[in-house]
Amino acid sequence: MINTNHEALSVRQQCELLSVNRSNIYYKEEAKVDETGISNEIHEIWFKMPFYGYRRITAALCRLGYNINHKRVARIMNEMKLKAIYPVTKTTLRNLAHAIYPYLLKDLAIIRANQAWMSDITYIKLPAGFVYLVALIDVYSRYIISWRLSISMTTEFCLEMLKEALSKACPEIINTDQGWQFTSHDWINMVLLANVLVSMDW
After folding, report:
1. Structural domain span for residue 32
2. Nearest to 117 by CA among 164, 77, 64
3. Residue 14: CB partners within 8 Å, gap ≥ 6?
4. pTM for this entry
């Protein structure tokens, strides 16, 4: 519409004739920022640290030298459908029908091996999902007596670990949390039949 190189009419004159504000002619729309590079960087960080939310990814980008705020990162992540992956798996689930035993390790001086063992279940995140690890550790020596991996939180893999551990040695006390695997009748019976005291965290 406006010819900035017109031979006879200046830009001002053309604007007056067309009733156009001259400032609009000189306004250059800011070029849309190509976010491909920053999107790739965000995806790379998220792939390595999938538990990072937009704030932690923003901090990681700033450490890499990017001048970017968390609102922009949040928007890009939303467009890419990237969300922080938070572990939601609980490894301590009580069965209220099971008996609970007292905690025996309070103020107890641990002075020798096989005086007390402790067991717990944790999970390991793999690309295909979670696997569960249960282990028995000697409190005094910190030696791992036995351990097992499972793709599900069954009592069976805990019992297999306990059976193997008791075939090696016999402690005075085995302490666990109040998860239903450790309060189950099968676990308690195996511990008591080995003449071991049962202890549970509060």
Report:
1. 11-80
2. 164
3. 2, 3, 6, 20
4. 0.54
